[in-house]
Amino acid sequence: MSSIRGKVVSVSIVPCGVFDRQAFLLRTDQNERGTGHHPQNIIEIAADIRLRDAYQLKDGDWVSVDFD
């Protein structure tokens, strides 16, 4: 469980890789079901660096995400 804007939500955290870096896919259960704020084709990735800055990414860019 996590708190987003004062609300408690369930979040899935899945190990993955992006640009040969270890990272995590973060997704609320609502977004996974298609009832959240983002469509299912939009994901959030957390890494040890800011990926947007390191790879000059912007909204709408496509990247490959690897899962075991």
Question: What this model shows, in words?
Answer:
By secondary structure, the chain is mainly β. The protein is globular. The strands form 2 sheets. The protein has a 4-stranded antiparallel β-sheet with strand order 5-4-3-6. 13% of the residues lie in helices and 41% in strands. It has one domain (2-66). 1% of the residues are buried. A hairpin with a 2-residue loop joins strand 3 (11-18) and strand 4 (21-28). The protein has 2 helices and 6 strands; from the N terminus they run ββββαβαβ.
What topology, given as strand order, has the largest sheet?
A: 5-4-3-6
- In N-to-C order, the SSE pattern is EEEEHEHE
The proportion of residues forming helix, as a percent range, comes to: 10-25%
Counted up, domains total: 1
Structural class: mainly beta
Structure annotation, total helices: 2
For the termini, the CA-CA separation is: 24 Å
Main pleated-sheet profile: 4 strands, antiparallel
**Range of strand content:** 35-45%
Number of strands: 6
Low-confidence stretches: none
Average residue-wise pLDDT: 88
**General shape:** globular
User: Measured on Cα atoms, how large is the radius of gyration?
Assistant: 13 Å
What would you call the quaternary organization? single chain
Describe, in short, the structure shown:
By secondary structure, the chain is mainly beta. It has helices spanning 29-33, 51-54; strands at residues 2-4, 7-9, 11-18, 21-28, 44-47, 65-66.
